[in-house]
Amino acid sequence: MKKLLVALAAAGLLAGVVTQAAAQSTSPTLARIKAAKAINVAFSGDSPPFSFVGSDNKPAGYSIDLCKRVIAQIGRALGEADLKINWLVGGVADRINMVKAGRADLECANTTQTLQRLNDVDFSNLIFVDGGGLLVRTESPVNSVADLAGKKIAVIRNTTTEDRLKYVLTRAAVKATLIPIANANEGVAMLESGSADAYAGDKIKLVGLAIQAKDPAKLVLLAEDISFEPYALAIPRNDSGYRLEVNRALTQTYMSGDIEKIFAEWLGKLGRPSPLLAAMYLLNSIPD
User: Fold this and answer.
1) Order of strands, sheet of 59-60, starting from the edge strand that comes earlier in the sequence
2) What are the percentages of helix, strand and coil residues in the chain, rounded to 5?
3) What per-residue confidence (pLDDT) applies to 228?
4) Which tens digit of pLDDT belongs to each residue from 38-50?
5) Nearest to 288 by CA among 259, 256, 251
6) pLDDT-derived band at 149, boundaries 50, 70, 90
7) Could you tell me which of 65, 64, 72 has the C-alpha nearest to residue 88?
């Protein structure tokens, strides 16, 4: 009996080793992470509540919590429970380029999946859906896109919001001045100082920025949407074995109910997930 148990245990162990080896052999990203015993993760330092540098000088936010679960799953798949995480901060274009060039294995922020970006990187299943909007000062006469004629609008350069804003303004025949900026803090500072009449960005991010502003009561988010923003995690192209582990972790998070805790932690002040977001979690869960 003991010999049988030992044999079964050895077979189980061998199967685990074979599974890990197979995963690594079919995935260059997993093999690279296994060899280094470390994973390089690009994130945004100024995109609350999704990805930012917290008060303890460590990455924090909704997307960061999801990525930690992804990293844990990658560690289990590789038999490396204590993977070292090298956090790499950067803007959206920088993060995409890090993944494209192989300097980052995973990207965790509020990055919109687009066809153009799919030329350079792959993406995980969706992690959030949002819409682009406009933040203005409370006393501002701007109540819609139509009111932006002659106004100055700050927007982070090389983002989907910038592209969509240009399209919306052209379609509405509204002539406004776009001010390309480097980061979200710069946009809020320009809005507060009056050097910009509006700041365009993803709505949830704008809410987070307004809450953290010097005087939140002086800023207001317009109701009008200017874009649709489906967020996902950028990953290296053409690595199906790696994408499988990333999506396995997201599925586990959605189906176990952990996503409710993450949502409550970072977005609970906004109430429950919208019907659209709740449907997104369901539709992006992959059955075994």
Assistant:
1) 46-47, 51-53, 59-60
2) 50, 25, 30
3) 87
4) 999 999 999 999 9
5) 251
6) very high
7) 64
